[in-house]
């Protein structure tokens, strides 16, 4: 370790800090964890290590989100490579399943699910989380192709994936089942999310066709990435 | 004010602290607001005022939740009194609409929606929020009658109501529309939630009947109140 070049040591320190922050935030909450506690738990001797490697809490959190987004995008590309361009009924699977595969790859216990759920409701971070982390180009294409590109259906899809994943992660962290059992629980959640999101999107589409034209100009329609 | 008996003054102080806490938490986040800041913003001269009236942060938060739960329950009873015992297709309306009516009554800006969304993902509070605040006896009866009493459908219903309400509240707080426009946006969200939840519950019920028997013994099925 002491012979590693400075840049490699810096990369290692950044990675350690990110993993530690995610774990502490997930288990104790954004409100209960200071940057100094993160640095100490990550084995950094310098009290300002986190501020040295990241300019502050929000940059640290954005770096963690970016790393997960890349991994999820790789799962999405792999799914498309295996199965080809998704047909109309497959698009919800291509929205949901890459996130499920990412959770399976993270193993148990993981912290990303609970961490992300907190970040998406934190006033200073929620807009960034929705626009940059949860609304990537590949996701936008899938939503547009699925007819859920605007409005409720897209927002509900995002909320269900984020918060149902955080709940399953909480439960698995408590029960610590064998890896195969955890993977099966994630796949079951994935299948249920695909079913539920397809059902709610169809229902909203039918209701919209029946009772009103889409209206983008009023509150309650604009937000949500 | 100075002539009010101590108990009335204590009630007033508690109420002021609760309203202030909810507003500060909603707009700045649980992580960024101290009990001392809440006391100061609520006009309390004593630096330990919040600890005097509530034993700490979690008790303060539980008191705020309890107050809202009572108001929502009143809306639910009023709806049942107006419309009688709900039929099968009305039960989702009786789950969703009392929360929507509560938001309309709170006016704009309100803070409860964003406050609740944060509380439900906070590690120290989430279980309490789900079990005590979001799973009242009247709600359990409606879920059981609707066939969504266990498992995914109930959990998804809760997540959609909490987090879609928080998002609309964020948007209304930013845009500050006239009260009638805000009320219409809440009613539109209520109608869309009823449609979406009915759609996803039907879809999950159909899929469960097709591919598997319910299994309560595996992870991913037990949690969620």
UniProtKB/TrEMBL annotation, chains A, B:
- Pfam assignment, any one: TetR_N
- Domain HTH tetR-type as annotated: residue spans: 17-64
Annotated keywords: DNA-binding
Keyword DNA-binding attached = yes
Q: What is this protein called?
A: TetR family transcriptional regulator
């Amino acid at each position: 370790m002491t012979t590693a070049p400075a840049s490699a040591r810096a990369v290692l320190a950044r990675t350690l800090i990110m993993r530690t922050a995610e774990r502490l935030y997930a288990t104790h909450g954004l409100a209960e964890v200071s940057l100094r506690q993160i640095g100490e738990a990550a084995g950094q001797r310098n009290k300002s290590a986190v501020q040295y490697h990241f300019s502050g809490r929000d940059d640290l959190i954005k770096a963690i989100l970016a790393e997960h987004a890349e991994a999820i995008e790789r799962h999405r590309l792999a799914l498309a490579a295996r199965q080809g361009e998704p047909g109309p009924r497959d698009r919800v699977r291509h929205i949901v399943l890459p996130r499920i595969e990412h959770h399976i790859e993270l193993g148990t216990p993981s912290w990303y699910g609970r961490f992300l759920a907190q970040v998406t409701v934190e006033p200073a971070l929620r807009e960034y989380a929705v626009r940059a982390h949860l609304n990537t180009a590949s996701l936008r294409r899938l939503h547009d192709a699925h007819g859920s590109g605007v409005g409720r259906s897209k927002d509900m899809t995002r909320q269900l994936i984020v918060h149902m994943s955080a709940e399953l992660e909480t439960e698995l962290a408590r029960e610590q089942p064998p890896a195969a059992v955890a993977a099966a629980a994630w796949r079951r959640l994935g299948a249920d999310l695909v079913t539920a999101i397809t059902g709610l999107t169809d229902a909203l589409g039918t209701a919209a066709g029946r009772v009103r034209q889409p209206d983008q100009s009023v509150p309650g329609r604009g937000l949500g990435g």
